[in-house]
């Protein structure tokens, strides 16, 4: 019985000993990762203001598009613009077009 217990404990002891080497490797991996990531972090820091400005511009453009959409009568497309549209993108007939038929 003692022999079986010793045989079962040996693999656990070996596994425990091999795990003690892991932190040294993981620290070197961490340093490598930090060296790899550092240029990207610097680039991010340099571009933060530009990204924030673009985000603000995108919000402003979205508001302008919403305002223009609210003011635009989509049914009334001028004739010169209708001729420029490809046949697949021709607008649906308007109420006035249907009344003419």
Automatic annotation (TrEMBL):
It comes from the Bacteria. Residues 1-23 form the signal peptide. Keywords: Signal. This is Lipoprotein. It comes from Pseudoalteromonas haloplanktis.
